[in-house]
Amino acid sequence: MLTCKVNVVDGEFSMTFRKDELAQYANNVFVASASGSAGKPEDSSLPVDTFVYPILTGKSLPKLFIENGKLYQATAGGGKKPFGFVGMNYTQFMLYFGRKESFELIAREVDQLASWGITAVRLPINFALLQPAEGVFPDNPDYEKILKEHNIYTSWFRMVEYFITLAGQRGIYSVFDWHGYPVDPYRHFIGGDIHAKGSGKPGEGIAWLAPTKIAAVEFDITDPRHYKALLATHTWTAMHFKNNTNIMGIEVPYNEPHTRYMNNQSNWAKVTSACALAIKAQDNDRLTFCMPAGWGHDNLSWTVTWQLPVGVDAQAPHHYLANGPVPTRPEAKSTKRPWLCRDQDLTFARAIATLSLPRGAGNVPIYNGEGGEWGSDIFLPDMERGLANDCMFEASLVQGYAAGLIGHMNWICFDNKSYDKTIYKDHGPRFAKVYAEGPVDWSKADVAFIQNPEGVDSDNNHNMSVIPFIDLMLSLHMGPVHYLTDDEIIFKGVSRQSSGLEQVTDASASIGDYKCLIVDKRNLDRRVEKILKKLNIPIFMFEKPEELTTAVAVKLFTDNGVYIDQKTPEGIQLAIGPKHVVVFRRKGESGTDTIYPNVKRDGVFELVDEKGKSCFKGTSEDLRNNGVSITLDKWRSLILEIKN
């Protein structure tokens, strides 16, 4: 409470404070006392409780750009540094602010996000609020009038701009995501009344793509009007925010396309490319991040793994820990969301790794657009909710980092669950410093795994064939490896040249850069098998997964100079980044173990734990030979900083 002695003239007074006397992002309580008073209650004013907004400085974030498949942040003097982030999905603009104005809440929550180490935020938005009528956007004179007619706050877009400005000032980038559409006249958050649905009473929500005011429809990209509306939304957003460096990028085409039409690769690629190019036409430097079909988690299609559509810069799949390529439990069919009722031990052991590896050879930046603890009630039903969410959030962060992802956008925050805010507070700052140094570099590898992704039947848009490779990679603590499909090799790695009446098929030089290859012959294209046999590279081919034993792999790797680690326990996962070693107990029980991470450094360096205690000092060879002791609980992580 701030108390100030003031002069009172005819019952009126004013109080003046310096900026540094006020707590920004918070309520300040003011009490005035008359100068020279005897301190009686009647000589003082009643307390005045006032929220103090932060001062807008106009400071913008450094520009982000992609170079040679890596995401960088510009630094002073024309320099650059790798960029990575811990992020959140901030859903208030879709689920709250249309029906409630609160710049104060934005300021409070931006402050909280920053305190958690969040440096990127995905903004799910129903584009009905940005385009409330066909072709009408916030720069149109009719915009606020239309919002008002639907009982939507006319300040909605000003709140969006305020968030982007304030978040940028606090070091947080924003990403646009089209998460809803003007197709349901009863949708509450765009002005409707959900309780009137089915009553025959016309809906009042913004739904100009619906056929009538009593008929809600799915967003349908095959409808020319829907398609035009989507492209117009991308176009206007890119134009309005052109050169705004607080914007990390725009996701294309829209959230989790999952219709029969959009699950076709050709259709998805065509629509996604059109959206990306519409953005580039307005702002060529604006980054575009594509979201796969199949509810955003497809890791099978070549258009979302190794051959992105024209105009797309990077990927933003939705890899939920509890919805990975792992078998479901026996009771799954009796649950309300059976796809989340997965084997718990296998999920923590390999889910994110199995989702990530099929995305190829580190050619483009990838972040997890949605993931984390969602679904914990089905996935971990016997565990207290706060503890379950904590384990899943931590596992998603560490496994995503180990897989080379540049960032993780957790779903969801600010849902009035106090335990979620606690886990964000606990784990956000821990991993923010790790991701901030840049991702684990997967662009180079000594080993490539090659197969047809339908070596075994896929399931739920997930590649199930990759599992033997994942188990091998994790159990031997291998560094980055590359995963190549036979289609990719034909497209990228095969050269055909006509010579008279003969056609000579040969391999391009890039396939010969690996020290050795492991090839799954199940459903493999015969052309690929023939061309691989012409290579002067050691290759192990198998037709049955059981043929790929650990002993066979170890001999292949050791004979050909590929580093593996058989001394660190199999249940421990190691991720070695630019300045940190992240350790995760992916399986097995709590306890103390010795780990032997392959930290490549010249000379002597230290490993320092999260309490600032040095737990190792020596050379890379010392660490590989002697290791370092760690104590780690089941499904938990620890972070060791590498200090030269």
Please, could you describe this protein's structure?
The protein has 644 residues and is of the alpha/beta class. It has five domains: 2-52, no CATH class; 64-181 and 219-436, Glycosidases (TIM Barrel, Alpha-Beta Barrel); 182-218, no CATH class; 447-559, Rossmann fold (3-Layer(aba) Sandwich); 572-643, Immunoglobulin-like, CATH 2.60.40. The chain is built from 15 helices and 27 strands. Strands 12-11-10-9-8-7-14-13 form an eight-stranded parallel β-sheet. Strands 21-22-27-24-25 form a five-stranded antiparallel β-sheet, with helices on both faces. The chain has a four-stranded parallel β-sheet with strand order 16-15-19-20. Helix 2 (103-115) packs parallel to helix 4 (156-169). The longest helix has 19 residues, at 418-436. The chain starts with a strand and ends with a strand. The mean pLDDT is 93.
